Structures are given as C-alpha cells and as structure tokens.
Amino acid sequence: MIMNDFKLLLVLIVVLFSPITLANDSNNTVPSLLSNNPEHSHLLKLITAISEQGHFSKEKITNETSYLILKSYLNTLDSRKMYFVQSDINYFQRYRYKIDDALKNGNLEPIFDIFRIYRLRVQQRIEYSMQSIESTNDFLANEEYDFSKKNTQWEKDNSILDLSWNKKTKNELLSIVLAGQTIEKAKKTLNKRYLKYLSRINDYDSDDVLDIFLNSYVHFLDPHSNYLNPNRAEEYEIQTTLSYQGIGASLELNEDYVQVQAIIPGSPASKNGELKPLDKIIGILDDENNNLIDVIGWELDEVVKLIRGPKNTNITLQILPTGSNPDGNPYLLTLERDEVELEQQAASSYIVTIENTEGTYSIGVIKIPSFYQDFTARRRGDKDYRSTTLDVKKIVNNLIDIGIDALTIDLRGNSGGLLDEAASLTGLFINDGPLVQLKDTNENIDIINDPIPGTIYEGPLVVLIDRFSASASEIFAGAIQDYSRGIILGQKTYGKGSVQSLYPLDKYSRFTSKKGFGQLTLTVAKYYRVTGVGTQNKGVEPDILLPSFIDENLIGEETKENALPWDKIEPLIFSSNNPLRQSIQYIENSYNSRAKDNLPLDYLKEDIERSFTQRNNSIVSLNINTRNASREQILKDNKDRRAIRLDTLGYEEESFDDFRNQTILNEIYNMIIDYINYLNQNSLNDSQDLFVKASN
C-alpha cells in the first residue's frame, strides 16, 4: 500500500555538505566498467540519508548494521551459494565494518571490488560447466539432484562446489533432452544459455552494480522497500498508468528464471486465467522462424521487450508451472496483447441464483480486483470519477433494487491499493467507528475513522479472501471481521501490514543529473486492526478455511527475508453489535457434515494434497531411464485421475478445471445459504419471543 506524501525532515535536504559537479555532458568518454563517479557518490549518500530518516525502522547505518548489509549484498549476488567459496567470504570480511562508511561517504570501491570477484567466479563457473557439458555423453549413472537445495553456507573449496555444478549442469542438459532435443543440440542450447548469462554479467557497468547494491541495502531494511533506477522508474510509471500494451503480468527475475510476480486484473493474462503467480517463463516463440527462444538466464528487460508488443498481436510463451520440476511438463500459452486500462480493473458484479429443496436464493457477487481511484478526474472536479468505493456503492444499490438475499465481496487475488479507498469502502458496511490504526516512523498512532456515516446494506455479508489478498484487502477483511459485520471465507491472507511512500529522488537532490536519479520506495508505516493486532507477517485468518491449491509456504510475507515482524498495539474502543460466533459455528458444522459425503470435495482435497506432495519432492534422478519412467508414471497417474473424476462427476475433458473451481464455488454458495437460513431462523425466533412477551 502506498501513502501519497510522507514529508521528510528538513535534515534530509542537507545531504551533501561539499559542492560537487555532476557529469551530465553527453560527450564525456564512457567510464571504465566499474569506477566511482560523483553521481554515484551523491546517489549513495542521498538514499542513505532518506532511508535513515524515513524508513519505519529508523535503522541507523553503524558498524553493527554494516555486516548485515554486506551479507545482504553477498546473498543478492549469490543467493544459492554456487559461486563464492569460503576463501572469498574470508576476503570480504575486510569490508565487514566498512560498508557503513561506503554508504555515508559515497565510496563504492568495496562494492565494486566484491562484484569484480563475483564476476570472475561466474566466468570460472561457466567455463567449468561448459567443459562438463562437453564431457557428458550419456545419462546412465544412478545419480540424483536436489533442484531446490539452497546451501546455508558457502562451500569450503572449489572441489566441493564442482560436485554441485556437475549435477546442476547434467540436470539442465537432461531436462533439455527430455524436452525433445538430441544430446548434441541440447549441448548447444545449454552452452548458448550459459554464454548469454555470462555476457549479461560481463556487460554490467557501474550503474548496474550500484543498482544491485542499493536494492540489497534497502531490502535489508524490508522486502517492500526498493530502489528504481531511471529506466525501472519509467517502467513502473508505464505500468501504474494502466495503459501499456502487453499481456498484463508483472514479472521479476528469480535467479535464472523470469517469474510471474502478479497478474494485473482485467489484462489478457487475467482473462485467460491459465497464467499464475510464481509460474516461470522459460521460452518465447519466434514467429518468424517458428522456434522457441530459450530465455532462461536472460535479463528481465530483454524478456519484457520480447513479450510487450502492439495491441491485437499474439505472443506464445513456454510456461513452467509453479512448483514444477525443472523438466516438469512445460506448456505453451498463447495470449493476445491488449491495452490494460483502469476500466478493466474496476469492480464488477453478477448475481448467482441457487435453487434447492428449501427455496430459491439470489446471491450478489462483487469482484474487486484492486483499490483504485481516478486521481485525474477527481482533481478536475468530476463528481462522477471512478473509485472502488463509488463504483461499489452504485453496484450495491443496483443489486438491492434487483433483489438479493446475500452479498459477497470477492477480494481473492486483490493485492491492495489505496489506503483511503480501503477505509471508505469499509465505511459503506459499518455504521461508524474506527477502521484501522496507522503507526508511523515516530511511533505516532493515526486512527482512521469511518468517513461515511451509516451503511448502504444491512443484509448477510460474506468476504472471500485468499493468500494473494494483501494490504488494503486485509484492512477491509480485518475490519469486517472485527466488527462482526460479515463472515470471512477462504485462506489466510498475504500478511503485508506495511505502508510505502514513493520518493522521487530528483526532487530531494540538491543536484541535477541528465539521466535522473530514479526513485525510492520506502516503508514508512505499519497498520493495525482496531483490536490492536497487526496483520504484518500474519495476515487475516478466515472464519472458515476453504481448500486451496495456493501453498502458504511459497507465497506470503512470512516467506520474505527481512520482513518486518508482527506486533500489536493498544486496542481501540469500538462497538461490535452483531456477533456472528454462533452463526459461524453453525455454518462450519454444516460444511463439515456435507464434507463427509461429498465426492467432488474429496477429489479436490486429494488433488491438492497430491499437488503439494509433488511440489515438495525436489529430488530428481539424473538417470534418463529412471527419469523417463518417473515422468511417464506421473503423466499416467494424472490421466487416470482425470478420467475417473470426469467420468464419475459427468464433466467433459476440457472442463477439468471447471470441476475444481465449481467445487469450491458450490461450497461457498452452500455456506452463504446456511448463513441466510440461520439469520432468517433467528429473526423468526426473535419475533416469536417478542410476541410471547407482548402476550404476557
């Protein structure tokens, strides 16, 4: 979540105390590959000053933190500990208490020195691996490789590291062979991939290394603080305008793979529904030559350039699904590029009509992809500007006019947005009172109260959440739960209880640069529920947990390094006049009763358990016969399971995913009907009690 303006203290303005001339002459000779320059020094000191004063933790750069920042930088460069050995780490200890001085004084030499050694080690490893590729002529040895293994410490020497690289290289080569290439062609493909990666590392200049280091520094503070260099800042601006052309997926570089970070609501990827967060893009189809371009090891910008293109043109991606083995059934996904606009990300609604033996029920469903607001229209005085709150208010009034028995707010996949919109939307369903607490860098508590007196809807309310519901979504769901206004169904939310502010660095700099200094995103506050409980690192627990294929061990704040800790503050005084404990217990008992004799639900739970088991099995054989047998068995088992489920449940082959989605939806709708009936029954009982009292 981003707050629009946290002003810096005046001390931040005085970043440099000595005059400096910045290089902005386009005719200047290109600096050496890794060399300090005045702009770098200025930027380093600028970001350090802003971070020390503006970050929520107010973490000062000292000798104690110097070592931790050094560790963060080394882990950024070599996260799997596959390049450095212990002798390198011993050498780097000379900088153990010098990184703080480097940040404050703007001296990049320690950072450059470490990177020079890293670049040398990458070159050595690539050369070694290419020799290993050439010496591999078959895959008959009975060896195994753990592709998920992440060393906790650096290896003692290169001889031990050689063993890891031998297995890594052989596995990558075998994966290409299993994808259909001959061993000779596979060798060329893998050599090309390694050379591409080496070229990328060798092309890094001083700006690139500074970018890496600055992000490792701010990620030491917390995972949501980021430095965006001028190019990345421009890319961020393009995405946040919601008017760029492409497939509509936020991407990130995770080691050698370009990985899907999030799916943008209303985008081609969102409408298609197949692409998921954490999926890896391993290839892109070259339409001209009709062959797949292997993009493993590519720079993120290079992959983005290939994916982005004119509206109404197609792009075909080779996707390795979340949690798959390196050779685990990649598939081709063709998407039509389109322009992503705010309109496509706005709240939308539909009505579900359910008939059973007890009657006919109409359930209004409002899907909210994000918490948005059209700032431009609002600034020019347009009273009918688009925003989450105003759009939902119109939708709810329309649903009431049509006639509904219950209302469902679907926040699944909603990663957040504007704090003000989260508060005002909550205010539509809560009569009055505080909604959320905000604690800033100085530990001041700001209480955000209901800005909209009264409510627009008094009937049964259900909120759907999942692991991708974050930030503003957690504020809404948490407040609805705390006030006992509605029932929360789904999965524990992401757990992002922090607030970020955007600092355009050119604005805070005393000096100018032709190319600009980029921008800094900094965590400046944490928010807490009215109960005083933080959502940071814990999220919002649903009242009733639903089965899900989303693995909490892969997604969520608690999976992030250096995540801010969970804590709590003093609770507020608020009135919860609509207790739901009894109704929740009734609904849960009813759900558990149905689950005892529910074949679709049994199938779904089996599939989820099987998916988690396969995902956690990270050890693969390097023997081609064993590997093939394992792959064929998995494919056969999957085919048999699909056939049984489709035949038993009466679905067509192409509707297998519909069975999974519909099973979850059926349980949600059954729970809502249980909720409606419970409230109706209690209302009837209350009326009868009043009649008896009046008669007496």
Could you characterize what this model shows?
- By secondary structure, the chain is α+β, with helices and mostly antiparallel strands.
- It has 4 domains: 58-221, no CATH class; 244-339, Pdz3 Domain (Roll), CATH 2.30.42; 346-502 and 525-579, 2-enoyl-CoA Hydratase, Chain A, domain 1, CATH 3.90.226; 599-695, no CATH class.
- It is 43% helix and 17% strand.
- The protein is built from 21 helices and 22 strands.
- The strands form 5 sheets. Strands 1, 3, 15, 16, 19 and 20 form a 6-stranded mixed sheet that branches.
- Helix 1 (38-54) runs parallel beside helix 8 (206-221) and helix 6 (158-178) crosses helix 7 (183-203).
- The longest helix has 40 residues, at 656-695.
Report the sheet-strand fraction: 15-25%
Shape: globular
CATH secondary-structure class of the largest domain: Alpha Beta
Q: CATH architecture of the largest domain, please?
A: Alpha-Beta Complex
Task: Classify the fold: give the CATH topology of the largest domain.
Answer: 2-enoyl-CoA Hydratase, Chain A, domain 1
Tally of DSSP β-strands: 22
**Which runs of at least 5 residues are low in confidence (pLDDT < 50)?**
2-32, 238-243, 686-696
Largest sheet: 6 strands, mixed
Mean pLDDT: 86
First-to-last CA distance = 57 Å
- Tell me the name of the CATH homologous superfamily of the largest domain: 2-enoyl-CoA Hydratase, Chain A, domain 1
Query: What is the oligomer described by this structure?
Result: single chain
- The computed structural class is alpha+beta
Radius of gyration: 28 Å
Could you say how many structural domains there are in total? 4
How many helices in DSSP terms? 21
Helical coverage, percent range? 40-55%
